[in-house]
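Changelog-adjacent note: as of this version, every example in the card shows the full chain rather than a window. The one below runs 153 residues end to end.
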Amino acid sequence: MTCPLSFTPTHLPGILTLILMSTILPLQNSLKKKDDVQEPNLSSFQQDPLQDDDIRFYTSSHFKYLQSFQENLECTEENMCILNEKIESRVKTLQVTIEDFEDTTAYIKGQVARNMRRIETLDQKIHNTIETLSDESEDRWIHSVLIQSRLRL
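Full-length structure tokens:
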């Protein structure tokens, strides 16, 4: 993945100009007298080796800072990618778990419905058996009464 704030070698001249404008030139302007309102002479930087070294030092230290900043951004971006992958993995695991739970719930509901039908069938059989037994017992009672009445006769 590319970082939206990445710096390429084509940005270096602009960055160096910004560094010069924001650090060295304001220092030089603040050292001028108030009466002296001349434009800064950039050629003096090239002629004086001490100032040239100062520019190199500031430039290299700023460039190192920008490099470390870019590396930190890249590390952060890599860490974000790793975290996103872990999150996506966990989401997929949860989705599979939810699907398994839904499948298990559907299976259990099917088993409950099947068992309820079995219970209803068994209940109906028990009811029929009780009716049959009661009918038979009534018949037996009537039959026994008849036998007893015949025996009395």
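Structural remarks: The two ends are 112 Å apart (CA to CA).
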